[in-house]
Amino acid sequence: MVGCFPNNNIELQISIKEGAVTGDSYHYQDINNYVKKKFRGAFDPVQKKLTVHEGMVTTYNIPKNCVICVKNFELVYSRKGNIETLQGYWGGHVINTPADCGIGPIILTRIKESAFKDIPEIKVDTGAIRLEFYDNAQIDGDSITVKVNNRVVLSHQRLGIEPLTHVIQVDFTNTFYEVEMVAENLGSIPPNTAILVVIAGKKTYRLSLSSSEEKSARVRFVYEPDADSRTAGQYAPLQIITKAKGDVSGL
Q1: What's the CA gap between 147 and 153, in Å, rounded?
Q2: Residue 210 — left, alpha, or beta (φ > 0 → left; ψ -120 to 50 → alpha)?
Q3: Among residues 40, 68, 75, 232, which one has the fewest Cβ atoms lying within 10 Å of its Cβ?
Q4: What is the percent of the chain where pLDDT is above 90?
Q5: Does residue 132 lie in a domain region?
Q6: Which residues contact 62 (CB under 8 A, 6 or more apart)?
Q7: What is the pLDDT of residue 250?
Q8: What pTM did the predictor assign?
C-alpha cells in the first residue's frame, strides 16, 4: 500500500512502566499533515523486544483521498555508541475495515525532541473553550489576528491589560480545533508576544505565545470525554522518542 505523503515519517512517543508501554504515535509529512494515534504494548527487557499496538486515532489532518492504517510494530532495541535504534517490522489494517495495509521493515532512531514540540496540544472534555489573549509583560502595541481552524475569529486586535476573548463552541462531530495567533505587527519590542489563558470547564491553562512576520503561534485542542489534563510532551520519566528512517507506507 502506498502512503499519502511523498515523505512519510513516524514518531513514537513511548512511556514504559514495569514492562507496560503506552504513548502516542505521529505519522506525518510535516506538522500540518499528520495522523496521531494512541498505542499500548509491552517491553521485554531481557530480549529487548518492544511490541506496539496502535489504537484510537485522536487527531488528524490529511488529504481526502488518504486512508489511515492502524499499525502494529514488533521491534528490538539496540545501542551502538550514542546511537539508539528500534528495528523490526510493521503491519496493519485500514481503519474500520479488515483490509490489510501492508507489512514491511522499519528502523527508528532516538531523537532529542519531538517535531511537534512547538505546538501545544490540550485535551478537553467540555463543550466550550474560552480563550483570553493578553499582552505579555510590557504593553508595546502588539496587534494580532486569531484563527480557529483557519476561520478568522478576531481580526487586527491590539493586545492590552483587558483580554481579547473568544469562546469555541465544541461541535462534538469535530473533535479537533487549531487556534492560530498571527502577528499583525511586532509592536515596539519584537517579537509579538501574548499570554493565552484557556478556560475549559474546571481546568485553566496559561500559555506563552510568540509570533513573528514569518511564523505564527499555534495551539491545538482535542475533545475527549473525561480527558486527561496533560498536554503533549508530558510523559513518564522513562521516555523514548523515536523517528522512522526512510519511507513507511500508509498512515
Answers
A1: 6
A2: beta
A3: 40
A4: 59
A5: yes
A6: 4, 33, 34, 35, 68, 251
A7: 55
A8: 0.73
In-domain check, residue 201:
yes
Domain of residue 132: give its range: 121-223
C-alpha cell, 248: 513507511
Let me know whether 84 and 152 are in one domain.
no
Positions of E strands within 19-113:
20-30, 33-44, 49-61, 69-80, 83-94, 100-110
For 77-108, letters b (16+ CB in 10 Å) and e give beeeeeeebbebebebbbbeeeeebbeeebeb
- Do 189 and 179 touch, CB atoms closer than 8 A? no
Which residues are CB-neighbours of 191 under 8 A, at least 6 positions away? 183, 210, 211, 212
Q: What is the pLDDT of residues 112-141, one digit of tens each?
A: 889 888 888 898 999 999 999 998 877 878
The helix (run of H) or strand (run of E) holding residue 178 is strand 176-183
Q: Give me the phi and psi of 67, to 5 degrees please.
A: -120, 150
Contact 146, 211 (CB under 8 A): no
Are the beta carbons of 133 and 202 closer than 8 angstroms? Answer: no
- Say which residues have a Cβ less than 8 Å from residue 147's Cβ, sequence separation at least 6: 153, 179, 180, 182
